[in-house]
Amino acid sequence: MNTGNLSEYLNKIDNQGLVKTITDTSNSAYANIQQYFDYTNHINGLLLGNVQSGKTAQTLGVIAKLADEEFPLFLFLTTDNVYLQKQTYERAIESLTTFDVFGEYDDVQFMNAQMQKPILIVLKKNTNVLKKWRNLLSSSGYCSANPIVIVDDEADAASLNTLVNKKRVSTINNHLASIKDLASSSIYFQVTATPQSILLQSDISGWKPAFVNYFKPGDGYLGGDFFYAEPTSFCIRYTEEAELDKVKQESEFIPQGLRDSLMSFLVVCAYCIENKEDTCNFLIHPSVRINDHEIFANKIGEHLNFLLEELETESTVFEDNLRRAWLDLQMTKPDITNFEDIKNQVSNLLFEQKINTVILNSKSSLDIDYNQGFNIIVGGNSLGRGITLRKLQTIYYCRKSKTPQADTFWQHSRMFGYDRDAGLMRIYIPPTLHRLFTELNNSNRVLIKQIEEFGLDGVQLIYPKHIRPTRKNVVDNEFLNFVAGGVNFFPNNPIENYTKQIDELLENYQVENETEITTFDTIQQLLKYVDSTEIVDWDTEKFIDCVQSLSVKRPSTKCHLIIRRNRDISKGTGTLLSPTDRRIGDKLNKALILTMYRVNGQTSKGWKGKPFWIPNIKFPDDACFYDVK
Predict the structure, then answer these.
(1) Is residue 627 very low, low, confident or very high in pLDDT (cuts 50, 70, 90)?
(2) What would the pLDDT profile of 471-484 be if each residue is shown by its tens digit?
């Protein structure tokens, strides 16, 4: 079998920086396979990238590298989207010329293949497609003597077991497991930019990754640290919180934020035309409701007609609003085309009706081409995973949720990518949603840093209380560790040991002040000497991990000790803190607080007759911790 697959693939790539990152990713992924795979086992590996950062290019490199190492059979799974499967299939044929590449309808050609070349099958995660190809793979006999390598793009989307808490197996998950089981061994790559649900899989689920490879984005990538930076990025423009409701009202006018975003888009389109570019996109993401998409599209169409009327009547209002948008963009794009030329091009766009309004949702036609021309794209969930919008320069976002999910909302970041002009980028968004995305970016950055430094060891997700890391139905509640901030945790059945060690750690705190300022390290040291006779009552390791995660992800968090001695507390009372100490803890609601009570331990109170320490820990109100047992 040909061993020049990776070099042939790399020869087709002009960007030497990309060649280097693909080579590095392929080598590091193979190093992990050498460590964890022994040709008799089934392993999962997480390939982690950023949203729209070129994960497919990296993944094809990994496939080519493994083909060089004599792996003969590959399955590439896309989301259940005809356009994405077709796009990936065509890209694989173009990129991996040393492979036999098969699509969903190539069953005859596949069955006649002689395995003289590596085989790559590109399928979408659809029940009927997976069932058909599971049977074809079984009939072919190719799996009986060979390991199978499965690359699951957006592996957190449809692949996990959505019935895990009902003790059943969802259909897609069952098909994927049965395909793995066809071979005596398999490597299952979980490719995603939002790994929250994958990281929360239990050991017994069969879907927990054994290793992770993170590939950094290349030069010129605009991602979370550009759009959702602190202090606020220059591309952010705040809108009113209730613009969605205003758009839905019976009114001939659209609200200010939407009006400003449309004018900004028209200026950018005119700039593109002046610079011989034929594509520019404007994304409007109002909500998940299809009816809302239609309302927005109609309102945009009406407003474009209104602008045309203003042009025809030579209204000064149109010119004033256009100039305001041009001046705003000029602040971040000083070399933007002069205003008069911009105005002329905008006039031509409107008169010649070159602005297309496109609705993209589950009811849309599959042959919509939004990568040519000047398009205003309105949609909801269909604007998530896998959808790549060329030259997306303007975004209007007002979708809200009572309990947003981190992975779902992060996938809405369609503005991330390479072919954006940073100076002309504008995001129109309410302040509360901007704050949400900033929090998500901070959490994402720290998660990636943790993975780069420590791999998957001790990975813990921390989110504000109002944000869930992922959907509930793919995480096994039986194995989920969840610690909520703002809650007092103490052991009902504490161990009555290590009094001397804790006395020594606290000997400098003899005066009972209201609280003592301390450090993360001191709290972790104290926690090592307290425990419970039952892990369900108090899990010391879990709390130490939470403190460690807080120190990494929120290092500015204040740490407090409350120390009380000579306490007469009965065993099994169901409460520990005095009303005064509870009030002190409630007042410090943004801090990490460890309260240590030295209990006298009389036998008359149900104890063993010796003094010992009982802990109470409370994490900041706005933090929730997630990991798996």
Answers:
(1) confident
(2) 999 999 988 888 88
5-214 CATH pick, 3.40.1280.10, 3.40.50.2300, 1.10.10.10, 3.40.50.300: 3.40.50.300
Instruction: Give the span between the Cα atoms of 125 and 583, in whole angstroms.
Output: 53
Nearest to 350 by CA among 256, 257, 262, 275: 262
Backbone angles phi, psi at 226, to 5 degrees: -90, -50
User: What whole-number distance in Å separates Cα of residue 563 and Cα of residue 516?
Assistant: 8
How many whole angstroms separate alpha carbon 170 and alpha carbon 149?
Answer: 22
Give 337's DSSP letter: P
Whole-number Å distance between alpha carbons of 51 and 444: 11
Q: How large is the average pLDDT for residues 85-109?
A: 96
Domain ranges of the chain: 5-214, 224-440, 479-628
User: How open is the CA angle 81-115-25, to the nearest 5 degrees?
Assistant: 60
**DSSP H or E stretch at residue 524:** helix 520-527
Q: Is 521 helix (H, G, I), strand (E, B) or coil?
A: helix
**For residue 116, pLDDT beyond 70:** yes
> Per-residue pLDDT averaged across 126-142, rounded?
96
Q: What is the per-residue pLDDT for 290? A: 87
Residue 90: other Cβ atoms inside 10 A: 13
- Asked if the model's pLDDT at residue 574 lies above 80, the reply is no
Q: What is the end-to-end Cα distance of the chain in Å, rounded?
A: 43
